[in-house]
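Help!! Second protein's tokens look totally different from the first
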Amino acid sequence: MLRKSLNGWNLITLFIMLFFALFILFPVILVLNKSVYDSGSGTFTLEHFAHFFERKFYWVTLWNSIKVTIVSTLLAVLIGLPLAYILRRVKIFGSKTIQILVIVSYISPPFIGAYAWIQLLGRGGIVTKFLNNTFDMNYDGIYGFAGIVLVLTLQSFPLIFIYISGALKNLDNSLIEAAESLGYSGIQRVMKIVVPLITPTILASSLLVFMRVIADFGTPMLIGEGYRTIPVLIYTQFMSEVGGDAGFAAAIAAIFIIVTIALFLVQRIISRQYAYSMSALKPMEVKRSYGIKNVLSHGAVYIIALLSILPQLVVVYTSFLETTGGQVYTGRFSLQNYETILFNRDLSMILNTYKLGLFAIAIIVVLGIFIAYLTVRKRNVITSMLDTISMLPFVIPGSVLGIALVFAFNDAPFFLTGTALIMVLAFVIRRMPYTIRSSTAIVSQISPSMEEAAISLGASEKRTFFKVIVPMMMPGVLAGAIMSWITILGELSASIILYSSNTQTLAVSIYSEVIRGNFGNASAYSAILTVTSILSLLLFFKLSGKKEMNL
């Protein structure tokens, strides 16, 4: 009986549950525990929470985060939805290239966008100088609320675009034609037919944008100046050498966890109210447009595409400009910045990015394969819990996870703080959901009859899994793994808390160089990260066999 209960799959399930309990649940519980206990006396207290809500500075910061997130998400929908619809309805010259450019803008880390816009519209930015000198203006730069919203909107709308593009492929065009025959105008058809039908997709993609924006650390840190958000507050409170309070930082993190989980659950409840499936018997067709409609369609698409890819163009361009002291551009083209970071400096931060990322991806792939198979084929109470816990890192912001891991592994017997292992663990935990969701989707598409046929021919269950199921899963697994890899490259929120001098990554290096004002080096590092992300995206298309990215 004991042998039966401890078969291979049960042991694997137990091992993964222990892994999640140790590296996800235990750290989060420690954060919650530290937030309600006095570090000196060890007694239960709500003083940290009272301190947060008594001081206007702190609860206003929470409201700042919510306000930035709501505005950025709404603007992302207002840009992504029309763009997806136009590209599905109107024949746009270079539409495939535009879609690639939009996706490239999404896979780059948000803080690179913030840095690029500082180069353009900062106090010493190219555009700022032009406006002030030409029109005798006193424009002070794109800092604060407006700057954060601009960067995060342009960084986030591609995700809305990707999701809605996929949904529009399943939309039956006969419904739109019927509305047209009843005299509905183009805008009325979109608002009364298209938007209601794709509402579940809009809500799902909006949630992803919402969670990404509210947890972003790099953008408000670089461009926010006096406009603080919760991730920045958590970081400064935890890392401050003077007046830093780990218990208070834990309380802020606990409040943030509660807010993000509550918002996540509300969205899930709303989504269920609109849940239904569509089947396109007559898919939407791309048609050539004429006159003012054609001009406006092309103009809108090209302007949006240019704005989205502009940060990447800026960092690549400025990486080839000569600088004086690393801070002032001379206007001459040079390889000086690349010579500095590649030959006059330690290459460890570049090598660390790839080395730690590859270790993390190897673990993610293994976990993704097993978790997807267990949650689909071996469904029970424990594997259902496994599926739920695996999505927690998606809800918990990176800065909170970083602090949680420090709390959990800063003492014996698990002293991991400052090591490469804790960086790898942070990457695995943060970016695992992408591969798990992709792997689960493809397992669901594999018919159980494939396994039954292999077993009927004499193959063991283990051999069937490794020789039949895993090879069939690999396209979906690798596609998800590449998306995990791309996001690992730009991981900053957790890394900035966990890194040491021996585990510094490209993302941390870019952030550090910008803070120090070494813009030339920051541009060169950013260009390397951008090119790596683009090559990874091309690999995604190659392995998945797709010509576009739809979710």
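Here's the second one for comparison:
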Amino acid sequence: MCGIAGILLAPGAADAKPLKAIAGMTTALRHRGPDGEGFWSDREAGVAFGHRRLAIVDLSEAGHQPMRSASGRYVLTFNGEVYNFRDLRHELESAGHCFRGTSDTEVMLCAIENWGLDAALKRFAGMFAFGLWDRKTRTLHLARDRMGKKPLYVASTRDALVFASELKAINRFPGFRQELDLNAAAAMLSRGWVPDNSCIWQGVFKLPPGSVLSITAADFAGGRSAASLSHHIRQWWSLADVAEKGRREPIAGTDEELTNQLDELLRLAVRERMVADVPLGGFLSGGVDSSAVVALMQAQSQKPVRTFTIAFGEGGFDEAPHAAEVARHLGTDHTELHLSPASARDIIPELPQTWDEPFADESQIPTLLVARLARQHVTVALSGDGGDECFAGYARHLMAARVNRQHGLPLPMRQTLATGIGLLARAARHDLVSKLPLSAHARHALRSDRLDRLARLLSAADEDELYQRLTGSSTENLTHHRPPISINGTAQLDGLLSRLLYDDMVGYLPGDILVKLDRASMANSLEGRCPLLDHRVVEFAWRLPADVMVRHGRGKWILRQLLHRYVPERLIDRPKHGFDVPIAVWLRGPLRIWASDLIADMRLSGDGIFDFTKVETCWRDHMDGRQDHSRDLWAALMFQAWRNEAGRPSAPAKDLSRIFELAGV
């Protein structure tokens, strides 16, 4: 895992001086690669590459980057891991190729020389983002992995095309101007994250997952906009194609046969991700996804696997005891970190700098802290991310199945049921539910916002309206504008569950989940690996019948069946939590002063980005306990904290006052 940066000058650039900026750009990524730094440039061609190395495989100088191919034709700066590189190496050696070291980077270059770029990409199993310079054709190729696990930002300036793993490196290029993208800001304030097909800065885009951008200097002569470069992008892998084919050609087999196939696939994915020349461990929350990954790690390890988890003090949020039970059963070497509100306060000032773009998934706090904990002991950690998106684990997936069944009832009957649930939601808002003798899980299920949403879903007229309501943001009732988030093509899919899973895979997964893991882990120089998002597992999941994903009112049914082979059902069979954080409570208590200060900054900024009347109403209602506005407030607070860190970026004055209106907050 590493940090990469690069510059390609336009033919009309006055001189090659901008190439010197590669040093500062690369230095900005030191946290992604503290083990070494490398540069390569060709002044005549107007190209420069930078690389920060986190040494994982082949710790010697033979793994140093940027790396040239054996013939000298190609130069590569690469971030990520190709897990099947040993198999590819054996195949290439059988064809007569020789290798200097043992790195996957050298294997990638040999594969590209031998098979061609697109054919090689289709053979790579892993996570990656890279810049490849073809010295023969003077072409720059930028490529990103299938699911978008590794980031790659691209910006076009008057004199150059620049790329990097993070925006902080692009910000170091002297010709780049920071100007706010209003649609991206609106999307962030509405959803809490900037969609993967957007960027908070104008003139910057993220290379789409599963794609390649191939470009020469002449292709952007005259300082063309980033958008004009889109016709140079081609898909080498398409999730839309995978989803459509999977639904057309479902796997036939008994429950046991399908579970056996999944077991074999995941064992391979986990085994490949356990290859490292440095200490390795796993994140363990005690939930289905992380427990399955750790169980398969331990089943294939001769010594106890190192596992790490976060513990909360607040009731109803702490899953650490469950993780500890799973760890004891599997025999892992387990470590807990107890997270207090004070810990949260201490880490909050780091969040804007860590995430570069404004980001407001509150689980970023424990994710950053558990990564920091793990890095004290290991350099690589396997994660359970992706299980919900592949195997239908979110509440909206279960709601889709449940409400879709109830949509067989006449609309008037559903409207009556929705009215009753709405009354229960009102009771919850007035704190009447808290007086009942209910468990913490039951109280969580009877939160007013959850009941309000269920009532709204029940009253949908048809499946299309139900889909729109399920995929809308948490503030959809206030939102006037929702930027599109599909970045990998539009799949033609039948069935509400399939549509929701696809929407999650092209939107929420690369825009939120993978951004959260990448930035949190790399901020601590830790490599995070996701076996559940191996492309072979994803392709298998799309061929599964819907009833092996959602059955008996439970999501991820087939993944649970696999896990029960390794862990007793009693340790896993409980309501889903996720990486929840008691942000609503913290905002009313230990984080109140911090939040109040940021809200004061919003008032004093005078630039019209926020509708301050709405902000104050949300804040007052939340503080008084009339309504839980923690999600909306957290997004606004994180945006303001990011703006403070970024130095109040410029934005077109005529549109500034519309940002908060567009977001609907």
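Reply: Different proteins will give different token patterns, so don't panic. The chain has three domains: 2-237, 249-301+319-333+359-393+499-571, 583-647.
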